[in-house]
Amino acid sequence: MKKFLFLVFGFVILSSSVIVVEGASINTTITSVSIWDMVVFRGEGFHRLHNVEITIYQQDVVISKLLTKTTDRGDLFMPLIVTDLSTGEYDVLATDKIHTATTSFNI
Length: 107
Known about the structure:
Layout: E1 2-8, E2 11-18, E3 25-33, E4 36-44, E5 51-58, E6 61-69, E7 76-81, E8 89-95, E9 100-106
Antiparallel strand pairs: 1-2, 3-4, 4-7, 5-6, 5-8, 8-9
């Protein structure tokens, strides 16, 4: 956490904290809820209150595109019910057009 002095409309704000995030990250968790199998995407470090597009690939073929919105801290939470995904390895690309993060998961 870094402290900054801000000059706003002629006033100096002396005690303001800004959380500096180096980069975005995303991870996945495979879980079951009731009768559904799910992949849960959790991310952080994205632009706050921004749309994030999550693209799922298998062998460089786009399988699915999801759209979610980040919180006021730049975090995201997006569950996906696994219905059309076959077993195998999947790559994930998440971007808000400012920050980008990648991961992979196996089913």
